Amino acid sequence: MSEKRKQLMKTALRVVFVIAWLPILWLFLSATIGNALSMFVGQTWIIQSLILGLSLLLIFFAFRYLTSLSEKIFGEK
Questions:
Q1: What's the whole-number mean pLDDT along residues 31-39?
Q2: How many whole angstroms separate alpha carbon 77 and alpha carbon 10?
Q3: What is the pLDDT of residue 74?
Q4: Phi and psi at residue 42, in whole multiples of 5°?
Q5: Rama region for 75: left / alpha / beta (φ>0; ψ in -120 to 50; rest)
């Protein structure tokens, strides 16, 4: 039972991580590269789609980094 609970908590932590960091990354990328993209792409929905995709990609890489870091620290997956 404890292994099942442990896996549930890991999944819940990932969901909370995405919910917390996705809007922060999206706003940060909109403020930093949004203006540069607007010079090349005229439509706002395309710019926001690119920024959202980049935000999701950065969160994916953060998961990979945190997983490898936890394996190095705790020695388990």
A1: 90
A2: 10
A3: 73
A4: -85, -25
A5: left
How many C-beta neighbours within 10 Å does residue 51 have? 21
* Sequence-ordered list of residues with C-beta below 8 angstroms from that of 48, at least 6 positions apart, any chain: 30
**How do the domains of the chain map onto residue ranges?**
2-74
CB 47 within 8 A of CB 38: yes
pLDDT of residue 48: 93
Q: What is the 3-state secondary structure (H, E, C) of 9-73?
A: HHHHHHHHHHHHHHHHHHHHHHHHHHHHHHHHCCCHHHHHHHHHHHHHHHHHHHHHHHHHHHHHH
Q: What is the pTM of this model?
A: 0.74
